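Obj.: predict assembly geometry.
Materials: sequence records (below).
Method: joint structure prediction, all chains together.
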Amino acid sequence: MNKNQALVWDHPRFRSWIAVARACQLMQTVLTRELSELDIKPPHLDILVNLYRFEGISQQELARKLLVGRSNMSMTLPQMEKRGLVERRGDTKDKRVLRLFLTEEGRAVAEEAMAIQTGLIERTLSSTPIEQCHAMAESMEKIILALHAEMADETESA
Amino acid sequence: MNKNQALVWDHPRFRSWIAVARACQLMQTVLTRELSELDIKPPHLDILVNLYRFEGISQQELARKLLVGRSNMSMTLPQMEKRGLVERRGDTKDKRVLRLFLTEEGRAVAEEAMAIQTGLIERTLSSTPIEQCHAMAESMEKIILALHAEMADETESA
DNA sequence: ACTTTATTGTTCAATATTGAACATTATTGG
DNA sequence: CCAATAATGTTCAATATTGAACAATAAAGT
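Observations (raw structure tokens):
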């Protein structure tokens, strides 16, 4: 049955994607280590970055942006609130939603964490020329669109 | 303090990498859904693929290849063994190591799962020309090397 | 106005993942 | 041969993540 095996590993796009996935996983691992000095993990960084950019976002919107479940936010955000990184205020118009904000400290930690992440990316992508980076990003955007289409398919056929 | 924010988001390699990370995360999400019909998840697929290619590998080696802890394998593999997908046999030379093999069913599931993954990759990368895929893979290999160097740095300075 | 449906967030049980401490077996240095 | 060190796998507690069921509020349909 090595016919199938050969087919899979010969597939050029398959091999390419495996490299992408591996790089991502490694980046995550290294980022986790480097963020540990701030006592946060990648999921917290994602939250901080999004609150930095989209102040007053709701938990629902945040979960959608991060591609995680609402329950995830319900578990994680109270922890970050206790640590004084974020603040949750009820919306006055709609009593269901909680709007999210960075605290002073949250903003500071967000900036340090983004600096760490940017530094890591700069170091590890420095050998890849800018044009190639842009080409990569373009390909990724197309892939992201295709994947969103896949997700829509799955949901509507359910 | 939007000076810092602007700097971060203007950084071209930063933006490029964010696209990569997002594509990976989406791919993982969609793959998880598509694998559910086989009652397995991406981590199991990773294990099956590696056992398919590297028969008789040890738990340690497998963990290293998958970039996870040994304890992860100690928790996951017995489950897969109970489900009849893999088999663990003690090495005769070294009584510490357990060598891993696919069962008949494990091989079948592995092939189905790889077919699902390959199909998904083919569909979502079809809009990216082959040459671009290769260029992407090359960049990723360089990034992987850089990240391994980072990990070595961290470990040796500890 | 009122009933139904949809949205937002929470809770809970199930599952996954990790790192540290540990037991067993190998290897190394004397 | 023996003691010290290293390697392999396991266990356990801590933490994360998910989906389903739920409560409260809003929106839509009648």
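Conclusions so far: The two ends of chain A are 34 Å apart (CA to CA).
To do: check interface contacts against the pulldown list.
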